[in-house]
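Action item from last week, closing it out:
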Amino acid sequence: MGCCKSCADCSFKCMKIALFVFNLIFLLLGLTLVGVGIWVMVESNASNAFTLTDTDSMTLYAGAIVLIVGGVITVIVSVLGAVGAWKEHQIILGVFFTCLLILLCLEVAIGVYYVVQKDQFYVTVGDAIDTLSTTNYSDFDPAIQTLLDTIQKNLQCCGLNSTKNFNPKPSSCSCDVDTDDNCCELDAMSWWDRPCKRPIILWMQEQSGIIAGVGIGFGLVMVFGMTMSCCLCQKKRKTGNNAI
């Protein structure tokens, strides 16, 4: 009998520690979201990236505010969970469970919305690139030019929806015809022979897959937290020593 009680106490302590550690990780995640939101609001390169896809500054800042608010909510929920686990407080654990359930439902709703709207999103991005393609490279702000140079070098492309968009072509359009793929040779110079529109959209699709994976992992983590909080509450009820 004593052995069973000892095992029960040990499992209870393990769940308590696991839930506490879970909330520390959750807290770090919330602080990261807040940091990213602040970075998006103050970092000019982020603003330039959204300008390239014809996204206005209000949309950019709205997204940053959503990240900050989401991060703050995550921090508050993690603190609730940590305090509830440490104090073995059933009411706080119940509030923590409810908050996680709401967050999980919101995440599922966002995921469903993305699946339904993703095709339209990429069409919008493509249309924005087509609109920007009417502007010559030399007419863009220096910061946008730097962003375009980075895109063209990394994605091995030239121009937006046509390799003839920019005249004269910037140096970031040049490539080594002997070593690089997707090169073409014109006169004494070699340029990337494909525009950047499709590579940009493909790159965004790849990143969305990564984001989806992170979202699924985040959802599983929340399910784990909900399960641990339920188990901890059940253990407290069985011991008959409820902390209020």
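Closing note: The CA atoms of residues 16 and 85 lie 6 Å apart.
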